[in-house]
Automatic annotation (TrEMBL):
Source organism of the structure: Coptis chinensis
Catalytic activity: L-seryl-[protein] + ATP = O-phospho-L-seryl-[protein] + ADP + H(+); L-threonyl-[protein] + ATP = O-phospho-L-threonyl-[protein] + ADP + H(+)
Predominant location category: membrane
The protein, known as: non-specific serine/threonine protein kinase
PANTHER family documented for this protein: RUST RESISTANCE KINASE LR10-RELATED (PTHR27009)
């Protein structure tokens, strides 16, 4: 009886193990292949989706170029781009957009060729550049000569700027034996030239163009240090010159130059006044020879340069406690920059007014209110020109 019980138990145990093995067989025989099949189709779908998106993007760009008639620009083959850049031998700069290479056209003219990253999927930057610069013609806006688009490969061909970008000359920590510091008068003329370029974009074109990324890196200098606004990848077109406030999803620009209303709509609507703010922040960096926010300074009150300047600005526009005597043109730039960086867009002047203030006498300028989180000022009503 005892032996029979043990035997029965062993048989039952054997049947249980067999059942488990059978279940595992079913699992690996049906479930696992199903999972692998699903993964396979996921990979195929992802590949096809990426291919279709690229095809669709390329088609959309082509449609845009066809609708705009290529704006009279030269269209190059990618092989021609490689040839003019000597197979991308001489790099002028790099960024999130891609790389800029030095090139030469058949007629001997030097050019700067911006090759956009293929990962910039939707082609928005490319379309922005062509749609904006392709419509412009101004001494203070860089000239777009042509473009290339072949499948996912995109390139833009610009006039060559031998002195590079403004940032190479205004930051004291970046100065080297290869770059000479710019004098006060030259900085003033550069600031005035940039203001005129922005005024043209805002009021001089058939359609208003908002740049949204004004900073020293995007200001190029020709052989005579004439400034030219470049890099319109973040630009936005307004339907007409009369349109002021624009709708925009998400913030655009570079930290340190972005107007308050661009990332917080409570300050006001996003408009051409957002470029005015960026311009003012850039002018402060030109004056100070440093980034506006610098935690390495010895005096804590000097960390934010515009705040320090305003706190020490006297009614006669002299700077209290400054170890250097600012010339009249520099004082004028300081006052204009303070007006430009007012917190509320309505308190900022238009670029037309900025040009007028820079070209006028300092005695004609009003003392700017504090630009740091204050309610709209009544004294700024004369500057509300659109």
């Amino acid at each position: 009886m005892y032996m029979l019980t043990i035997t029965t138990f062993c048989i039952a145990g054997s049947n249980s193990i067999g059942w488990v093995i059978l279940q595992l067989g079913v699992l690996f025989g049906w479930v696992v292949p199903t999972i692998l099949l699903v993964l396979y189709w996921e990979i195929i779908f992802s590949f096809v989706s990426r291919w279709w998106n690229k095809k669709e993007t390329s088609t959309n760009v082509e449609v845009f170029l066809e609708n705009y008639g290529c704006l009279g620009l030269q269209r190059y083959k990618y092989s021609e781009i490689k040839k003019m850049t000597n197979s991308f031998k001489d790099t002028l700069g790099k960024g999130g957009y891609g790389c800029v290479f030095k090139g030469q056209l058949r007629d001997g003219r030097l050019v700067a060729v911006k090759v956009l990253n293929e990962s910039k999927g939707n082609g928005e930057d490319f379309v922005n550049e062509v749609a904006t610069i392709g419509k412009t013609n101004h001494v203070n806006v860089v000239t777009l000569l042509g473009f290339c688009i072949e499948r996912a490969k995109r390139a833009l061909v610009y006039e060559f700027m031998p002195n590079g970008s403004l940032e190479m000359f205004i930051y004291k920590e970046k100065e080297s034996s290869l770059t000479l510091p710019l004098g006060t008068e030259k900085l003033y003329l550069i600031a005035l030239g940039i203001a005129r370029g922005l005024e043209y974009l805002h009021r001089g074109c058939n359609i208003r163009i908002l740049h949204f990324d004004i900073k020293p890196h995007n200001i190029l200098l020709d052989e005579d240090f004439c400034p030219k606004i470049s890099d319109f990848g973040m630009a936005k077109l307004c339907p007409t010159r009369d349109v002021s406030v624009v709708s925009m999803v998400g913030a655009r620009g570079t930290i340190g130059y972005i107007a308050p209303e661009v990332y917080c709509r409570n300050f006001g609507g996003v408009s051409h006044k957002s470029d005015v703010y960026s311009y003012g922040m850039m002018v402060f960096e030109m004056i100070g020879g440093r980034k506006n926010i610098n935690v390495k300074v010895e005096n804590m009150s000097e960390i934010y340069f515009p705040q320090w300047v305003y706190n020490h600005l006297k009614p006669d526009f002299t700077i209290e406690g400054s170890c250097e005597m600012f010339e009249e043109t520099t004082k004028k730039m300081i006052v204009v920059a303070l007006w430009c960086i007012q917190t509320h867009p309505a308190d900022r002047p238009s670029m037309t007014k900025v040009v007028e203030m820079l070209e006028g006498n300092i005695e004609e300028l009003d003392m700017p209110p504090s630009p740091f989180l204050h309610p709209p000022s009544q004294s700024s009503s004369s500057l509300l020109e659109e």
